[in-house]
Amino acid sequence: MKQVRAKKHLGQHFLKDQNIAQKIVNSLTGHNGYNDLLEIGPGTGVLTQYILEEGKFNTLFLDVDKESIDFLQEKYPEVREKMILADFLHVDISKYFPGQFAVIGNFPYNISTQIFFKVLEHRTLVSEVVGMLQKEVAQRIAAGPGNKTYGILSVLLQAYYDVEYLFEVPPNVFVPPPKVTSAVLRLKRNKTKTLGCDEKLFFRVVKQGFNNRRKTLRNALKTFELMDDVKSLTIMDKRAEQLSVADFVELTNYIAGGESRAI
């Protein structure tokens, strides 16, 4: 059986430690009772084997690397039709999973942030995520208000998910070894169905606030051309990194009520 070569342009670093692989798969909790599971970028199948051993999920394995799909279809012929050559970032995942599902994977470093933004797009369907990614990105997602690493993705994901920083993974357990330490996160969909504000505006306010994170919100949100009563709010003296999810929801409602012309 021809082995899969790690491809730099795809950000591939294949995990070789079986104990860590099993630990990652065991981190799935079945939160909210889902039966469907999507593995993103199975590569050489180090997680795949333990997912199949579990036997309790209807799993789809999605990889953009044809060499990986060919390898996995030969290695696991019993689920050959579940091995799909596709790019998660550009596929309509709802055509495979119309109901609740979970996501697992050793996410390529170069697209891990984009993967989480895609999860946000499908937040009504994605019950749980267990993913390994670069430590710094994982810390950013898990960070709370007042932390220098707290940012756009922290707020947006924590608005809809409970985020758990599970454990770290050293470079030497990969082929080829990356130059950074990795970490495993678990996200569980919280009970929030709607935020109680204009959610599209909420996303814009969060992004604009952090794009000018060194400025007070009064200056960071200048492009919204806010009314004077909104500009004079005490919250506008703060910077984006000081606000909790609830604070951003409150701010969004203020802006929606007193916004003269947002771009």
Tell me about this structure:
- It comes from Marivirga aurantiaca.
- The chain folds into 2 domains: 8-189, 3-Layer(aba) Sandwich (Rossmann fold); 199-258, Helicase, Ruva Protein, domain 3 (Orthogonal Bundle).
- 33% of the residues lie in helices and 19% in strands.
- It contains 10 helices and 9 strands.
- The chain has helices spanning 18-26, 48-54, 66-75, 112-121, 135-142, 152-160, 199-211, 217-220, 228-231, 245-258, and strands at 14-15, 36-40, 58-63, 83-85, 101-106, 126-134, 161-169, 174-175, 182-189.
- Helix 4 (112-121) packs parallel to helix 6 (152-160).
- The N and C termini lie far apart (56 Å).
Concise structural overview:
With 263 residues, the chain is an alpha/beta fold.
* CATH topology (level 3) name of the largest domain: Rossmann fold
Q: How many structural domains does the protein architecture include?
A: 2
The pLDDT mean sits at 92
Helix proportion range: 25-40%
The first-level CATH class of the largest domain is given as Alpha Beta
Distance between the termini: 56 Å
Strand content: 15-25%
CATH superfamily of the largest domain: Vaccinia Virus protein VP39
Which architecture of the largest domain would the CATH scheme give at its second level? 3-Layer(aba) Sandwich
Q: Which class of secondary structure composition applies to the elements?
A: alpha/beta
Low-confidence stretches: 259-263
Count of β-strands? 9
Oligomer: single chain
Q: From the alpha carbons, calculate the radius of gyration and give it in angstroms.
A: 20 Å
Biggest sheet details:
7 strands, mixed
